Amino acid sequence: MPYYYKKQKRWDGRKATQYGLAILVLLIGIVILFSWLFIRYQMGSAPDTNEQAPPTTVQQETPTEIGRCLLIFDFDGVERFVLVQTDPAHHRITAVPVASTIADHDGCTLAQALHRHGALSVTNTISKTLDLPTQHYISFTPKGVEDLVNHLDEGILFQVPEKVTYTDENGANIVLSAGEHRLSAGQVRTLLAYTGWNKAVNRSYLAADLVTATLNQYLSENRSLEAQFSIIFNASTTDLRNDNFISYRSALALLAQNNHGTVCQRVNLPGTKANGFFSPDLERFRKESGLY
Fold first, then answer.
1. Under a CB-based contact definition with an 8 Å cutoff, are residues 185 and 146 in contact?
2. Global pTM?
């Protein structure tokens, strides 16, 4: 083969290799360019953590929804009912003593209906009778009351209306004089179950006064609402659940913030007694209480 031909063939091979390398370098360059552009795009779209963002102002609406809960004290034949209404817009809680002799739908008293039909049925009856929709109930036994008060580190400061004589769990005779006392868990239980009051002392009113004193003393922004809800939940039978508490929390927090020892007040339920039943005077009640 002529020398010139061999040399030409060798040159053509080297040229092809050079073209191949050039194309490869070009492709690598294109890939690097697109990678760089992509990284720059990502960096441009991400927030700069070193740059301080302007503060975000979240405006929270003041809770205005009225809530109602029926408190039931079921003490083995001594039943007490207190309707509690929360009004966060007016920084007000109302405790309404409800007579246990109000008639149920089947003609029995609320006290009888509690054991025949349960707490929910009694709650619905009171809602309809007073025309005050009541969302929930909390029912306490004597032990539940003691468990609750035992978690209150200072007892309950309360004005006992008259002298009370009773026998404690150890068989000792106890005399509790009329006047202001800081009540222990056992004393609160005794007063709620006590049946020896003079006629001048309304037993339903006394239960509402104990509720009022407890809320005025312990509903505070310095106390955890979550912890208090947990204590109540564990000491009672209730249809309240955690999601209910979450929905009411802002209202309770506002009431706690504005509680200066008088956030809760007792409002009496007027009416007449006849044939063993109590009939509420709703027109007078609405006029005197402002509850609707």
1. yes
2. 0.78
The model's pLDDT over 162-202, given as tens digits with 9 standing for 90+, comes to 999 988 778 888 899 999 999 999 999 999 999 888 877 88
SS3 of 187, please? helix
Taking 3-state DSSP, the helix, strand and coil percentages for the chain, each rounded to the nearest 5, stand at: 45, 20, 30
Choose among 68, 109, 75: nearest CA to 203: 75
> Helix crossing, 142-150 with 185-193: angle to 10°?
150
| CA 268-271-275 angle, 5° bins | 135
- Tell me the C-alpha to C-alpha distance, in Å, between residue 71 and each of 28, 141, 199, 214, 243: 78, 11, 23, 13, 19
Count CA atoms closer than 13 A to 239's CA, side-chain side.
Answer: 15
Structure token pair of residue 159:
């004005």
Burial of 151 (0-12, 13-18, 19+ CB in 10 A): middle
What lies within 8 Å, CB to CB, of 254 at 6+ separation is 62, 63, 88, 91
CA-nearest of 219, 190, 222, 182 to 207 is: 190
Tokens 């309360």: give the residue: 158
Coil, helix or strand at residue 200: coil
